[in-house]
Design goal:
homodimer; alpha+beta; Arc Repressor Mutant, subunit A; Dna Ligase, domain 1; 3-stranded mixed β-sheet; 5 helices; 37% helix; DNA-binding
Chain lengths: 154, 154
DNA sequence: TTTGCTATTGCAACATGTTGCGGGCTCTGC
DNA sequence: GCAGAGCCCGCAACATGTTGCAATAGCAAA
């Protein structure tokens, strides 16, 4: 593990955004609790997307007393801090994008059940189409678009 | 409104696709029950989109003994018959499109909370982008895309 | 260290869907 | 119009989220 400099100004290269969570919370008059620590630890172990229920399960492994409402509330907080983003899978269930580096959408194939990310170039076409035709600023990351992939056409 | 070209055979003028439901069910060895009749009656009164819970509530008004599981199961059946299509609203809750004349997507504005339909021309751009770049056949009707409308930009 | 403010937790209840099961009802064949 | 076959219903239990409330516990000031 890296040493933890906890710089208040800019982050030294190599530091993880998670290291600052405690301070960022306290700076806002919020609190650093064992339950929040547990969730952060779990999130550090993941990348990409995780369902809410998977996160709850992992938290329970570390702390048997974990309750779902606390996890959901903490995730809301982390979303406000920009550390996660929530979206909905093809079936409407919640999914969390961890440390979203860039906004990207998702495709779900009803044939094979796989999920793909929409590459920025492709996403840009969609965003642009809705922006120019309707003046609508799309947040592609919120939903999973369904359909059939190239390998599953009829 | 356009006439509805859904069925392969022609529909006599004035006839509603709902009139054929009973026969179409029986033709498949399925049954025409009071619970199904109630739901059909409710669906006839609606157009466009309805949430599942709204349908359940309306069914309960007509028949106090309505149970949710029956409604959901019947809606699944009707979806197989092509009379409704389900999708997910911006919050992941189920929504049903009644008598979908053409596939269309939906936009939800997180600012004002309104929902718009994506016009076929606009939808075509999106479908085309994903088809040509990824070979992915999008079903736009399944999800509600979130964002901010022209009136709600910052 | 102690004290006090109040953010946070865990519980309980609720909302929305899903699923397995036993008994009842629809339909068909006679 | 009766009886048999099996589709369907309602129930109960569960899965996933959300919300209100009283009690707890973080944090900072004294």
């Amino acid at each position: 593990m890296l040493p933890n400099p906890t710089a208040s100004a800019e982050v030294a290269s190599g530091a993880s955004p998670w290291d600052q969570v405690a301070d960022r919370l306290r700076a806002g008059g919020l609190r650093w609790t064992p339950q929040r620590r547990t969730l952060i630890e779990v999130l550090r172990e993941h990348e990409g997307h995780v369902t809410a229920s998977a996160l709850i399960a992992r938290c329970k492994e570390r702390d048997r007393t974990t309750t779902p409402s606390t996890v959901y509330r903490t995730l809301d907080l982390l979303e406000e801090l920009g550390l996660v983003r929530h979206g909905h899978g093809h079936d409407g269930r919640e999914e969390y994008h961890i440390l979203p580096d860039q906004v990207h959408g998702h495709l779900y194939c009803g044939g094979c059940g796989k999920t793909w990310e929409i590459r920025p170039e492709t996403g840009a076409v969609i965003v642009e189409a809705l922006a120019s035709q309707l003046g609508f600023a799309v947040d592609l990351s919120h939903v999973t678009i369904s359909g059939r992939c190239a390998g599953c056409h009829d």
